[in-house]
């Protein structure tokens, strides 16, 4: 009987430790004015292993894409890394009806960042044409918070 209770105690303690290391997924829609305002005025608080998903409209057919960087001087100093970058093209009803694809259709860019160590850093994003982009400092001064994001990330 004691072996039975000991086995149950071990299984419960393993389950509890697995629950403690489970990473969180935090998501912000950068097309939402409320989310942009929140990110402009508040840091994103994460723990090591947590992921931050940023979702935003993008239309690369116009040349405008999201250019991004973290402010850390090197990858050793960075407190997060981009682990996934995807683009989902929008489906237009005309395409579903005809089976033909249209040019000039936008979509959604999804960036997933993962917290790698404790500290703070900024993740900057600019919606720009790469051949016209002159750098984040100048771009932030010339554009509003829809076309430029500076997201403070704190990993605890």
UniProtKB/TrEMBL annotation:
GO terms for molecular function: cysteine-type endopeptidase inhibitor activity. The keyword ATP-binding does not apply. Pfam families: Inhibitor_I42. Keywords: Protease inhibitor, Signal, Thiol protease inhibitor. Gene3D superfamilies: 2.60.40.2020. Residues 46-134 form the Proteinase inhibitor I42 chagasin domain. It comes from the Eukaryota. InterPro entries: Chagasin-like_sf (IPR036331), Cys_protease_inhibitor_I42 (IPR052781), Prot_inh_I42_chagasin (IPR018990). Residues 1-23 form the signal peptide. This is Proteinase inhibitor I42 chagasin domain-containing protein. It comes from Stylonychia lemnae (Ciliate).
